[in-house]
Amino acid sequence: MALWGGRFSQESSALFKLFNDSLPVDYRLIEQDIVGSIAWASAITQVGVLTTEECTQLHAALNELLAETSENPELIIASGAEDIHSFVEQSLIAKVGDLGKKLHTGRSRNDQVATDLKLWCKKEGQEQLELLAKLRTALIKLAEREIDAVMPGYTHLQRAQPVLFGHWCLAYVEMFERDISRLEDALKRADTCPLGTGALAGTAYPMDRVKLAQSLGFAAPTLNSLDTVSDRDHVVEICSDASISMMHLSRMAEDLIFFNSGEAGFIELDDEVTSGSSLMPQKKNPDALELIRGKTGRVYGSLIGILTTMKALPLAYNKDMQEDKEGLFDVMDSWAICLEMAALVLNGLQVNRERTLVAAQQGYANSTELADYLVAKGMPFREAHHVVGEAVVVAIAKQTPLEDLPLEELQSFSAIIEADVYECLTIESCLAKREALGGTSLPQVKSALAGKKANN
Ligand code: ARG
């Protein structure tokens, strides 16, 4: 039975019920709805709506319902209730009779759903932070294990300058640290309690909303009833933070898919996270990484979905807002499993150091070094850049790396080149020079890693 039958003389059509009911989605708020109802029972007791005895009875019945539904979650959907709030109220009435009908005094499903959802965001947000921290740890471990493997760094997907594999890992650590800080920040703003703002105008019972907020673990109550029941900024923010984080996950996946390709052969992925082809026996496909990249799309989709749902809503609550949950739940599920999967992929990843080193040596990745060498000998950088460009053209024609050109040949591009040039063209020298803060020299990467480990 619906919560609102009195004004109606006709039943809802079956199609309307199917269209309007949100239980198949919001059943996930069961725990929050019950916890919120327990706090509400106490709050209305304090303003004289319930006796202490009645409150105790309601608390017991609500706790009993929580235990029953966590044991048999299928009870919820099977009830056919309109939404999770109706389910809880219905079940309560079935347990304690007319007393159950008193619980909704002074409360609306509008402040109720807003409270449930914020409680859910806070809880799931904490779990998401833990998964982000685990992924960060996996990257730090990999950085430590492979710190000095040399690989080509790319711009435009062309070999640019050599970098250490540890440096690559720590680049993603920076990204996931920003994701952690963004989510923490969003959760701070979500930490205000809507309960006690009623349908839109505030509740007519003089309750202590500060105390109520505290009893539910919120930092403070919300301050404006109209805003409270129509605010879904926390959903937008979390979807946005998830989208940014998925973008990082997807870029990392893309890097690794490329490193794993037959063409690059830089890494080997564990059997645990790859799959074979039904036709081609030689294949070992990076499915886990491709799915991380692929799921990014649906997370972005949910962000655009909630932004679009909210954009033209007049104050205060509108049923459009019921559409907030499906996307958010999917975002949190997708983001969580991608974070876990990424950590698993990293834990089992092997770097093929010979291949990465050979690749780093190819592609004229030491051209900048030659230019810097000329600069050190007094040539202006722009001129040096030009001279090296000419040398690279000749080297490419001869299919030889710069360091294999004989001295006389190098001197034909600039007479200031001397025998000491070869030393600066080595890969060790390329790396060692990147010693300013944030660079890829081994001491820099080691100190960056030490900093990350200290904050782990
Ligand atoms: N199922 C609804 C939702 O998720 C609960 C709020 C219903 N409020 C109302 N005035 N119809 O938004």
Summarize the SSE layout with pairings.
Blueprint: H1 14-20, H2 23-26, H3 30-46, H4 52-71, H5 74-78, H6 84-96, H7 109-145, E1 150-155, E2 158-164, H8 165-189, E3 192-193, H9 209-215, E4 220-221, H10 225-230, H11 233-260, E5 267-268, H12 287-310, H13 324-347, E6 350-351, H14 353-361, H15 367-376, H16 381-397, H17 407-411, H18 421-424, H19 427-432, H20 442-454
Helix pairs in contact: 3-4, 3-7, 4-6, 7-8, 7-13, 7-20, 8-11, 8-20, 11-12, 11-13, 12-13, 15-16
Protein architecture, described:
Helix content is 62%, strand content 5%. It has helices at 14-20, 23-26, 30-46, 52-71, 74-78, 84-96, 109-145, 165-189, 209-215, 225-230, 233-260, 287-310, 324-347, 353-361, 367-376, 381-397, 407-411, 421-424, 427-432, 442-454, and strands spanning 150-155, 158-164, 192-193, 220-221, 267-268, 350-351. The strands form three sheets. A two-stranded antiparallel ribbon has the order 1-2. A two-stranded parallel ribbon has the order 3-4. Strand 1 and strand 2 (158-164) form a beta hairpin. Helix 7 (109-145) runs antiparallel to helix 8 and helix 11 packs antiparallel against helix 12. The site of arginine has 10 residues, from helix 7. Arginine (ARG) binds next to helix 7.
Shape: elongated
* Approximate helicity band: 55-70%
Which structural class fits the helix and strand makeup?
Answer: mainly alpha
* Number of contiguous helices: 20
Cofactors and ligands present?
arginine
Main sheet record = 2 strands, antiparallel
Report the count of strand segments. Answer: 6
Radius of gyration (Å)? 31 Å
Distance between the termini: 52 Å
Point out poorly predicted stretches: none
Which percent range describes the beta-strand content? Answer: under 5%
The overall average pLDDT, rounded, is 96
Succession of helices and strands: HHHHHHHEEHEHEHHEHHEHHHHHHH
